[in-house]
Amino acid sequence: MENIIFTIEKGTSKYIQIYKQFKLLIEQGDIPANDQLPSIRQLADSLRISRNTTLMAYEQLVAEGYIRGEGRRGYFVNELEAHIVKEGAISIPDQQSEPTTNYIVDFKAGSVDQANFPLKAYRRISNSVLTLQETFLYGNPFGEMCLREQIATYLLQSRGVKTNPNAIIIGSSTQQMLIHLGQILKDDFQSIIVENPGYDGAREAFLFHQFTLETLSVDETGADFSQLDDMKSRLIYVTPSHQSPIGVSMSIQERQKLIQWADKRNGYIIEDDYDSEFRYTQQPFPALASIDSTKVIYLGNFSKSFLPGMRLSYMALPEVLLNRYQNQFKYFESTSSLLSQLTMAKFMEEGEWNRHIKRMRLVYKNKMQCIVSALNKQFGQHISIIGEQSGLYVLVKIHDDRPEDWFIERASNYGVKVYPTSIYYFNNQSDVPILKLGFSNLNCDQINFGVNLLKKAWL
Amino acid sequence: MENIIFTIEKGTSKYIQIYKQFKLLIEQGDIPANDQLPSIRQLADSLRISRNTTLMAYEQLVAEGYIRGEGRRGYFVNELEAHIVKEGAISIPDQQSEPTTNYIVDFKAGSVDQANFPLKAYRRISNSVLTLQETFLYGNPFGEMCLREQIATYLLQSRGVKTNPNAIIIGSSTQQMLIHLGQILKDDFQSIIVENPGYDGAREAFLFHQFTLETLSVDETGADFSQLDDMKSRLIYVTPSHQSPIGVSMSIQERQKLIQWADKRNGYIIEDDYDSEFRYTQQPFPALASIDSTKVIYLGNFSKSFLPGMRLSYMALPEVLLNRYQNQFKYFESTSSLLSQLTMAKFMEEGEWNRHIKRMRLVYKNKMQCIVSALNKQFGQHISIIGEQSGLYVLVKIHDDRPEDWFIERASNYGVKVYPTSIYYFNNQSDVPILKLGFSNLNCDQINFGVNLLKKAWL
What is this structure's pTM? Predict the structure, then answer.
């Protein structure tokens, strides 16, 4: 022990410095097992620190098991494996991230309009929520009742869905809820029908539970429901209001056919109503769940209509499934922010939500008109525009036999980012190039400028 | 058609009123299929509304498939199943909720101190985050890099864990992350060892994936690691810094033994470091992951140390598992609020987090002293206090052979809520009554008053 030199620096607590140096010496084997440490008085005197500081360092070492106190005899080093400390994940290489290109115009779909976000109301309400007692507790595992009540009212008024706040479950994303839902469905249902093309995230969530996937083809005229008869699944996942990504809506006849199918097969329809708020040519169509809520699991979220980063989704469950869900997940904590839930509940209660949706419908309708007329003007007969009745993006089908990648790369060379649709196809391939152009966070000038650049890139 | 009376009220848009009344009439079969609707001019004149309003109502009905336009011939009703609309979940009874008793003192553990919450700093930062562009996008599926960087720095400084921001995954709760983690572990590991008593939420998350559970007994002296040799699992879930619920900490020898065990079996240790920040008698012990991060999956969260309702958790993965995780979940959206992530990153970056932890350690230390001295004063030799070195609760072991329920009910009769520990036991039974008393959101007066009432209730 005599030749060990301790260094005591200013800044960090002295006792922690002594503790750490002893710890290292013991771990490295520099002080062997059963050696006696200097007495508290000795060490304190030699380092010119208080005895109390020394005592604290020794007590930390005792508590962690590095040394033991043997009463008046003093402190001794415990047995320890030498050189046990290994370096860990420190050398993990940087994540493969896309090379960051600075785009002049990014036709990103996963965004909302920042300029028209109700910043003042949202701040006021979220700041007030921070003073509530319940904000400092764990929340209800199935979601806060105040928000579930607001959602139930909204679903009845806007989507024709008659449900009960208790039948509504709050989650953090559609995928997270599909993982939970899959857990209570997978024993009775081994396979599920999904739309092709369709939302890739839902497919992934079903694959999480090893569901076998059957595909229902969809094009601009809708889905061919006669295919259902040849399929063996009793479960189907659909986007009836605004097919993702094609954009068609199911007619009342198709909706009825689907309900009858589920009824006959004793199955369920999972209706993902992800952006039904934004239909421009007519009122949003009533939800499938408004026709028969005993056969339909209704999913909605605030990602398109309010703010994706809030991570706030919900589902309305038929009674049989609700009981099963509550039993399965009663010991699971909510995955959804309590602050966001309480804020959104108050936002809806005060009428801010309805005002926001009305305002945004006009804002996005205007943007949709911009992009459609810009595309028509620049491309005319070279393209077909798909899905201009609703939503926050359009699909551009190009009458050309070059591959999708070519159009994306050419656009990129001109500083414009457009998105593929092949990822929505089951085999990651579409027959003709179809590009996805989102416009939610672009203004009309940016949209026009972007489409102009696309013309240069593509024609 | 002649005797159908339309009512047009003020307030709601006229076209929606007309649309809804037609829809109902068609659904109820009051207007049979292939019947002709009044022409737009006729209806507009008879209702004294504009032709444009009538046209909009008809177009909505056409779009949804209720009627069809046949050019100059006019509008006709489509085929439709009669009486298809079924009532749904509307009659679901209210959720079975506990009868709400108003407690005078609630020794709840799942809460944080509201009086010392850094409200001003949090509001300032979260309000500023609302103006950032990235707040309006979908976030990184694995968590925002700015927060992962802050957590990596914090883990190194405070827990001795050397990791890399890329190896850190942000989630919304420990259970949510265990569900994801279980997905990438379940093929290689069919069973897992859990502590008994132990965190019930973790057990549930492992049962989600049908892991077989083996139990490692823990008491006030710690776990008996010699039991590990007889077990067949190669995976273990532990709470080394502050065993949940017993409160003991693993010594360095026990930590080493565990690491060697994992090494020898080619397994992993899941280290749940859920409230390591609050150790009062010494510095927090270094994490298991600081000894060997290749064998340890490290889990942490902000629920005890900051705010449970934020739903912000994280884990640091060994490299092999990280690759597997990234592949499995690259198409899954984050479950954790982007607002909370960006706010917490800035909060940490500005040093507010370290200040908060320092302050709260003193606040909770003071409360811990209050409750321990109150219990000692009122109960003396009738009880033993377990776990007073750290955390936001103590366990009270009562030297009495009446059952746990008796003590909870008696306390309730005196207006005090105390919590069971039997739920943490594998068979839901402990040998002696042990009650859990949380104090995080009570002040010293409330604590003293509550303990006084408990004396009246129990002695």
Answer: 0.86
